[in-house]
Structures are given as structure tokens and as C-alpha cells.
Write a structure and sequence with these properties.
The complex is a heterodimer of chains A (383) and B (170). Chain A has 383 residues and is of the alpha+beta class. Chain A contains 14 helices and eight strands. Chain A is 46% helix and 13% strand. In chain A, strand 4 and strand 5 form a beta hairpin. The chains are: A alpha+beta (383), B alpha/beta (170).
Chain lengths: 383, 170
Amino acid sequence: MSEKRLIGNEQITPITEEGTEYDFYFGPAHSGSGNFGVKLKVDGEKIISARADPGYLHRGFEKLMEYRIPMQNAVISDRLCVLEPLNWNLVHAEAVDELTGVEIPERARYIRVLMAELSRLQSHLIWYGVMSLALGFDTGFKIAFGYRDYVLDIFEFITGGRVYPAGYICPGGVRRDLPVGYQEKIMNLLRQTEEMMQKIKDFDNVVFARRAKGVGILKLEDALRLGATGPVLRACGMKTDVRKDDPYEIYDELDFDIPTEKEGDAYARCLIRDREMEESIKIIKQVLERMPAGKVRQPEKITPPKRVKIPEGEVYVRNEIARGEAGIYMRSVGEREPYRVKVRGPDFLHMIPVLEHLLKGYQIADVPAIYWSLNICPADMDR
Amino acid sequence: MTETPGKEDKLIEKISSKFKIEGKVQRERRIWVATDKESLIALCNFAKGLGFEHLSAISVTDWPEEGTFELTYHLWSYLEKILLTIKTKIDRANPVIDSVVPIWNESAQIHERELHELFGVEFKGNEDLAPLFLEDWGGPPPFRKDFNWRDYVREREYDKANEREKAYWE
């Protein structure tokens, strides 16, 4: 193993009488995400350098998936990110579908997009909650989490699970059809979410603008160099979205915009997410309107897993999840289990290079604002 | 979205006119090329020049029977809207490869650091290959195919003197 062990065994720099430089640990247990630490070197209140300390949630999913069949992996893929399991379900299912070459029924593709967008909406509500909490605005946190529960009600109604859908979006389609009366319930949910978003607008400028404006500025060239994707990149002025550029499922048939901002600061990233929620609502309405009838899985009956083998081949699938670009590289040698699975989470880049870069030069008090403006999830970084 | 037909084929032609590669178009927006270890860096530089600015991921596949590690570099072009995957094989007994940090900077750095820890691949030119996820890990790189974590844990943790542990381990 390399000698350069900086995290873990290194001793804390003592505070000397004349010196003002010292080490400051943010995490690994902190309000917000937890399970992730940043080791800061600070001079007084100012951050000189930052070093991410990941690994608290490393569960070795890539290796676990090599020992399991796709239907089991679909359930594992839930746990790739606590905050948006359905989106990760979808990435995994698409990788397997591309290898097997199964034609996904039209209705299943609509349901997949519906669930992915509801999941994005739910994830952005969590983000709004924890961002408020990080900025000391407790009311926002409570309200956002309250409204998020309405989305979870819908998840429970459709998938059976509130947070983890247990692989609802599975290879070949989705596990079961939408229950009776889903349209009404989802339309009602959208009304509630719109009400919440009106509240967000009313709260605006009170805390958010003061704490987030001009903080954590990311320039476009830096963002590209550091591997930023999704809302973080769009906040720097880059108009890119995997749903438009590399469309999957039925996204090329839907009408929606890609919001962008120019400033690249924490506040711009907040605005992007706010507008993305509006776009998600727009997408969900279109999907509900056009929802076709038919089967929801191909093949309809589950074959005994012993007989199902993944055809030989390799694929790389990219999806736009709430946090950025998610990818899965899957290699199969014609066995029941995939030979190799590589999971590429957006937060692997956002939490290590981007965060380390952004924190430099700001005050300790800005750490939560920068940290949460990236909307990060340690689970998909550590995998 | 309407795409100009055949832009994937054109790109492969462009690359193969300069490099000795095996390339194929998998589908719309997906290109796979295989090259040897020596021309990897030149090819990556060329790809970046073509607009493949975003290094989406680097992955390693372990082939113990063949005695190789296969590295795959997944590159996305914001301009062309194509995903290019560059594959190359290195010797498993001596897993050393030139780093792509000079080309894709920090985003490559962190991927290489992870793969160094999980597969034991040495990236020449990457200055920071400190352990990332596994704290105080003394075993072999755990994502290699020949690493059996059940045996590893059993060997280290099974206390044979303790009767109660027998039910779990035996």
C-alpha cells in the first residue's frame, strides 16, 4: 500500500502559541448527510486546503453484483443512493436490457420515466430540506420533508416501499402495473408540490440569498476539468443534460427545458434545482396524459432464474439522475451473473475533486452552504 | 433529436487513419475501440482534441485466466454527443500503465486512485494514489477475481476456540 496515508493515521497538527493554522474536521458525523468527512486545514476561519475522507459507506456493490443474478442486483441497486433509489434502479435495468436486447413494452417505458421523475422531485425536496437546515433555516427543512412524504405515499402506493422500492424498475420493464386511481393521486401530489414550490419562492432571499450568493463559485473550465455533471455543471452555464443529449427511454419524445445559470455559485445551483422541479412536473403531466395501455414487462412471467443467462457483451449506460450523470458499465461473458459491473456515481466526482476545490479560500461557516449546494449523497460515492 | 447519420462511422475512420485500432459502432452514440498499451496516451490525447472533454469513468476488468487486466476509459463528447470507450489490456503480473491525469486532470486522478486501491493497478505519473475507501486495509486488492472475501474473513476472524462461532462458520 502507498505510503501517502493522509487520512486516518495522521496526527492532528498542534496549535502553536504563535500559529493560527490548525486542522479542522468536518464530519464524519454531521447534520445533513453524515457518513462523510472533510479534513480542512484552516488559518483562523479561512480554509487553506481540504481533503475528502470517504469510505464510511463503502459496501463493495460492484463486487457483490458479480455474484448475483440481475433480478437480485435490481434490489441491490436501490441502495446505491438512499435519496433516489428509483433512478438507480433504472440505470441498472437499462444496462441489463441493453445486454439482453429485450424490447421493453411501451407502457413500461412510460412508467419508468414517471417513477424516475417522481424520484427526482422527491430528491430535490430532500435537498431543499437539508440545504435549509445547513443554512440555519429550520422551517424550510420541516416543510420540505413534510411535502416529501406525500411523494413517499405515492411510492408506497405504486411500489410497496416508501423509500426503497425493492427493485421496482427491473430488467425487462417494471415489477407490476400501476394501481387503480394512480392518475388522480399523482395529479393531487403535483398540486401539493406546486404549493410547496410557491412557498419556496416566498421564502426566497430571506436566508438563501444571503448565505449562498457569491459562495462556492465554480468556473466552467474548472467544472469540466473536475468532472462536474448535472445541475452543478448547468449552474456554470453549460447547457447539457443526458436526457436530451443521450436520450434513453422516452425522453426524446417529451417536451421539457434544460435550465441553466451563469454565476456558478451556490445560489445558482439552488435556482437550477428549483427550476428543475418545475420541469419534472411538466414531464410527469405529459407522461400521465400519454400513458399507453399494455403489458408492463417482457417476458410477462418470471422464468426460473437458473435458465436465464445474460448474453455475452459489454455496455455503458448513462442516465441523468437528480445529482448528475450516473453510469453503469456492465460486462457479461454469457453467465447468469454479470462478469464485471462498474458503477459511476455523480457524487464520486462532486464530493472529492469538486468539493476539495470549492472549499479552498472560503470561511468555515460557508462549508455547509457549499457542501449542500452540491446536493451530495455519500452512498453513491462510496458504493 | 435528429442526428446526422453515420457520424459514428466517420469518427472511427478518423481515429483509425492515425492509430492502429479495432473499432466498432455498437449503436447510435456508442463507439468502442481497442488499442495497445503503448499508444493509449497518444490516442487519449487525440480523443481529447476531438472534443472528448468529459471522462465519464475508468474501469478495470480482471481476466485471471488470460493473465490480463482490461482497462476501459469511457469518454463523452459534449460537442459530438458520442460516447467513446477506449479499451486496452495490460499484464496482470506487472499491472503498470501511464496515467491519463495530464489529459483529464483531477477527474482522472480520482478514478485512478480508486482503481489503484481496488485492483492494485499502478498508474505511472499519478502522484496521489493514497488509499481511498478502505482504511487500514492490509489484504490484497479486493476487487480482483481471485480474492475470495469469505475465505479471507474466515481465516482472520474465525475464533475456533469459541463454540458459539462454529454454527456460523462451519
